[in-house]
């Protein structure tokens, strides 16, 4: 990490008011993501993964601590980052192309330039044939890929993804993981990805952040020093899978105890 | 659909048949008794009755002018009430209260402000369109899902683009229902205003003249035209709504 980090969180806390009490979704979270790094967030449901991601996206305002993207404090939504939500959230009344071009409008490009960049990104996710289709005409997987194109087309240096492949079947899911790595290699972006799937985290990430609940916090950060392309059946892969599983499982005992 | 139309026509057709029978047998007497044949000839042969077409034209023009003004103002107001929270809390109750005023109760107010003028009529029609559209738009915009609002925010869309690319298209189905309600109330408002305020061409004026001259045949033609155009507007807007629903 010789370069300054693209993202840095310093003792970030966030609580929600729930029936006259405060529910602590995040306490004292410290995390840095380097340029061109992929970091995966895993942890049990309700441990604050989405809350963390949404805070970086500027959709939640932390109570405490600081979040900086490329050195700048996050003060508004969509600052220097692009977001892929778990559901595709395409605007139903715009075609796939219209949805992707809409993301480019704030950049003040010419219409031709917008069209060119949108077409290139739609091609990247393999949907050129469907560029003029409307979201309701796309399958779930296609719509999700369209949402990824919409996030990538603005070419922000940081891409935030909240269980982006959660709705896909396992074959499509592993194909999308490969496509994402290709895009990442070509565009040199940094990616923060939330996932429920340990294998997905191991396949994609340079580091895996294991979170725990009550209150939501970072339990450990596991570096994944496996060369790419990674083989899911390699010994090193299964050893790391075992380690992450244990990291996740211990908590259940603690909670049960 | 055609079956429904046919069933709907059965009752009026029966009444006309009875009416034709009654006047054919000489059961109807006096200056107010007219035969269906007489009424049918009115829009074409009668020198006063022929004014119907010009009247319909004038009324429809007035409807378009008033409904456009009121509709656009209504949509803008609904949008502002839904998107600017302090405006919503400050003005929604007032507008809701004004809406409770029966439409025709505005006529004395408007004529005392504007006199028996075209301005009074257009304002009245605009009011008839305004209220349904304020509420349809406000409700439609409020119902745009929070998930899509977040998308607009993370995409850094300008306020203007949020309105044109998110809120208005999102509210469109609700607005279309508002337009359907507004069209009927503004059409009745148009003819009502012409009838009550008098002077100037229009279907309402046509009916009012028929009343003044004791011309039952012309009055019947005017009322039938009023109803038929209302049915047509209703059908046209229902069709528009079906088309929009298919699109989403
Ligand atoms: N707006 C909110 N108001 C109240 N509580 C909230 C709000 N948003 C999140 N929470 C709570 O904060 C906790 C963390 O939520 P979060 O969505 O970040 O979990 P998560 O780790 O993403 O879970 P999952 O894996 O199920 O998506 C949860 O207990 C949730 O109920
Ligand atoms: Mg979540």
From TrEMBL, chain A:
GO terms for molecular function: ATP binding; ATP hydrolysis activity. It comes from Paracoccus limosus. PANTHER family: ALIPHATIC SULFONATES IMPORT ATP-BINDING PROTEIN SSUB, TAURINE IMPORT ATP-BINDING PROTEIN-RELATED. PROSITE patterns: ABC_TRANSPORTER_1, ABC_TRANSPORTER_2. This is ATP-binding cassette domain-containing protein. It holds the Pfam family ABC_tran. Keywords: ATP-binding, Nucleotide-binding, Transport. The keyword Transit peptide does not apply. Residues 7-238 form the ABC transporter domain. Belongs to the ABC transporter superfamily. The lineage of its organism: Bacteria, Pseudomonadati, Pseudomonadota, Alphaproteobacteria, Rhodobacterales.
């Amino acid at each position: 990490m010789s370069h300054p980090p693209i993202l840095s969180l310093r003792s970030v806390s966030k609580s929600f008011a729930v029936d006259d009490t405060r529910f602590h979704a995040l306490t004292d979270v410290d995390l840095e993501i380097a340029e061109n790094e992929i970091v995966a967030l895993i942890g049990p449901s309700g441990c604050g993964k989405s809350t963390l991601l949404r805070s970086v996206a500027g959709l939640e305002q932390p109570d405490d601590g600081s979040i900086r993207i490329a050195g700048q404090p996050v003060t508004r939504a969509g600052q220097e980052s692009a977001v892929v939500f778990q559901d595709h959230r395409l605007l139903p009344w715009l075609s796939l192309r219209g949805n992707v071009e809409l993301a480019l409008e704030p950049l003040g490009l010419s219409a031709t330039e917008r069209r060119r960049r949108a077409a290139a990104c739609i091609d990247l996710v393999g949907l050129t044939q469907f560029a003029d289709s409307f979201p309701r005409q796309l399958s779930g997987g296609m719509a999700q890929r369209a949402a990824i194109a919409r996030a990538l087309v603005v070419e922000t240096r940081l891409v935030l993804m909240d269980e982006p492949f959660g709705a896909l079947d396992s074959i499509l899911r592993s194909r999308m993981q490969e496509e994402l790595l290709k895009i990442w290699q070509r565009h040199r972006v940094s990616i923060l990805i939330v996932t429920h799937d340990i294998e997905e985290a191991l396949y994609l990430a340079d580091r895996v952040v294991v979170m725990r609940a009550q209150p939501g916090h970072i339990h450990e950060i596991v570096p994944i020093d496996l060369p790419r392309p990674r083989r899911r059946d390699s010994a090193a892969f299964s050893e790391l899978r075992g380690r992450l599983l244990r990291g996740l499982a211990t908590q259940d005992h603690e909670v049960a105890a | 659909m055609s079956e429904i139309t046919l069933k709907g026509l059965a009752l009026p057709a029966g009444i006309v048949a009875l009416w034709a029978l009654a006047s054919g047998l000489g059961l109807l007497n006096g200056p107010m008794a007219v035969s269906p044949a007489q009424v049918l000839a009115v829009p074409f042969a009668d020198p006063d009755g022929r004014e119907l077409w010009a009247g319909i034209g004038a009324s429809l023009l007035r409807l378009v002018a008033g409904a456009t003004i009121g509709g656009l103002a209504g949509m803008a107001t609904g949008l502002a009430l839904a998107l600017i929270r302090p405006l919503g809390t400050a003005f929604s109750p007032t507008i809701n209260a004004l809406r409770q005023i029966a439409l025709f109760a505005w006529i004395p107010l408007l004529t005392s402000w504007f006199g028996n003028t075209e301005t009074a009529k257009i304002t009245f029609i605009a009011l008839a369109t305004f209220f349904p559209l304020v509420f349809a738009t406000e409700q439609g915009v409020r119902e745009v899902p929070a998930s899509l609002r977040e998308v607009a925010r993370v995409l850094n869309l300008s306020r203007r683009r949020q309105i044109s690319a998110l809120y208005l298209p999102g509210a469109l189905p609700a607005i279309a229902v508002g337009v359907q309600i507004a069209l009927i109330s503004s059409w009745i408002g148009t003819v009502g205003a012409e009838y009550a305020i008098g002077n100037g061409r229009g279907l309402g004026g046509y009916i009012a003249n028929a009343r003044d001259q004791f011309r039952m045949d012309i009055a019947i033609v005017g009322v039938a035209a009023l109803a038929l155009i209302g049915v047509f507007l209703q059908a046209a807007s229902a069709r528009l709504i079906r088309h929009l629903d298919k699109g989403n």
